[in-house]
Write a structure and sequence with these properties.
The protein is an alpha+beta fold and about 240 residues long. The chain has 2 domains: about 160 residues, Ribonuclease H-like superfamily/Ribonuclease H (Nucleotidyltransferase, domain 5); about 50 residues, no CATH class. Helices cover about 40% and strands about 25% of the residues. It is built from 7 helices and 9 strands; from the N terminus they run βββαβααβαβαββαβα. It has a 6-stranded mixed beta sheet with strand order 5-4-1-2-3-6. A 3-stranded antiparallel beta sheet has the order 8-7-9, with helices on both faces. Strand 2 and strand 3 form a beta hairpin. Helix 1 runs parallel beside helix 3 and helix 2 crosses helix 3. It is globular, with a radius of gyration of 19 Å. The two termini are about 35 Å apart.
Length: about 240
């Protein structure tokens, strides 16, 4: 079994970004990472997955793959969206050009080739929930985004456990969760689906005018640009 954790980060959308990955192969741990000057969080999430799968393929590492990501965008794309996009000429259901399609095309090829000889499972892990491996790849990605010096580990799993002082799958202590205040937090935008068309409004007043009194509409408040992009993609591909 080859166990993988990946993450991406960007300082702005677009902005300076980084990606991180951690592999466990035959009781050996390998960390990978890199950066781009102008990118997005979603692009870095995909780059991390592409780079780590290329690492496995080029080195002809054997074993089924279990890849952990905290990106819903990456998960949905890998298990379903990219196959539909390829059949549709790399257009979404709303006939828009697929974002990051250069990476998606590479990922489609990688997944096809790797699946010829093994299982490849994509596992959703909760971001910032304290899973040691996920916290580590987040730290690698963030450090690269900030252009900090990053020491990447390569060595035995036992040595890695001693270095970090914990098992890769264990939980690190986290602060107690407070009650969510998302309902009163300032929104980045409001995304709605009305008569089959997707709209984004910056204020609730604008969104309310669009959805009020209409049947079958969907709408949601989001708090970041990444959340907006992810929700729009989900609506486009339903």
């Amino acid at each position: 079994m080859i166990t993988i954790f990946t993450d991406g980060s960007s300082r702005g959308n677009p902005g300076k970004g980084g990606w991180g990955a951690l592999l466990i192969i035959d009781q050996k741990v390998v960390e990978l990472g890199g950066r781009e000057e102008k990118t997005t969080n979603n692009r870095m999430e995909l780059t991390a997955i592409k780079e780590v799968l290329m690492y496995v393929e080029v080195r002809k590492a054997e074993g089924d793959i279990e890849l952990h990501t905290d990106s819903t965008y990456a998960l949905n794309g890998l298990i379903g969206w990219m196959y539909a996009w390829e059949k549709n000429g790399w257009k979404t259901k709303t006939n828009d050009e697929v974002l990051n399609q250069d990476i998606w095309r590479e990922l489609l090829g990688l997944m096809f080739r790797l699946k010829q000889t093994r299982r490849v499972d994509i596992v959703k892990v909760e971001g910032h929930a304290g899973v040691v491996a996920n916290e580590r790849v987040d730290g690698i990605a963030t450090a690269f985004a900030d252009n900090e010096r990053v020491l990447l580990f390569t060595g035995s799993l036992d040595a890695y456990k001693k270095l970090i002082g914990a098992d890769i799958f264990s939980l690190v202590p986290t602060a107690p969760k407070t009650k969510s205040k998302s309902s009163s937090a300032k929104a980045y935008s409001y995304v709605s689906l009305v008569d089959g068309k997707i709209h984004t409004d910056k204020t609730w007043a604008e969104c309310e005018k669009r959805v009020k009194g209409k049947k079958g509409v969907k709408y949601k408040k989001v708090f970041t640009k990444d959340q907006e992009e992810e929700l729009v993609l989900q609506l486009k591909n339903k």
